[in-house]
Amino acid sequence: MLDLVLPLECGGCGAPSTRWCAACARELTLSVDAPRVVTPRVDPGVPVFALGRYAGARRRAIVAMKDRGRSDLSAPLARSLALGVHRLLRWGLLEVPVAVVPAPTRGWAARRRGGDPVTRIASLATAHHPDIRVIAALRMKALARDSAGLDSAARERNIAGRVLRTRRRLPTGAEILLVDDIVTTGATARESVRILHDAGARVTAVLALAAA
């Protein structure tokens, strides 16, 4: 019935009769050297990795998931994230136990999207790993604006002092991996890392689904 009202189409390219086509699945596949280190304009103080560029099917899937209610696209994005985390562990850049902390989002945005999509993707990606926990330890103050369209300096001003800790306790001794959907200037990552460090946490890296 839903497919009759809302025609089924690929979230990456719009191809009919499928939610995620084989061509877009191939485009979302990680290259052998991914996740790659990226250098945002604002240095978070820890290495920043991205699964790929914010372009093509990856970009369209993220936009559709966040802004068009396509929660079904969490699954292919989660598979990509799961492989990225696995490679960081295999390369020795992370060690278990790991606490995955989703980057903060504004509460109204999460409610509009039916929940925080980054937390949902991170939870799907790590669901079967016994030594990885997803902890929503950060939140954004209500006064923070949507960062879309802001330049680097404006993003820093918008984020400064507006990332807060939740009451969720971080596990003692675990490495922290901050996960976000898109890394642009790095302003959100730096403020998030600062808040976690101030709480005594050991943030090892930032991992983003895409780098803009």
TrEMBL record:
State the source organism's domain of life.
Bacteria
**Entry-linked Gene3D superfamilies:** 3.40.50.2020
Family classification: Belongs to the ComF/GntX family.
Q: What is this protein called?
A: Phosphoribosyltransferase
Task: Please tell me the species this chain comes from.
Answer: Mycobacterium cookii
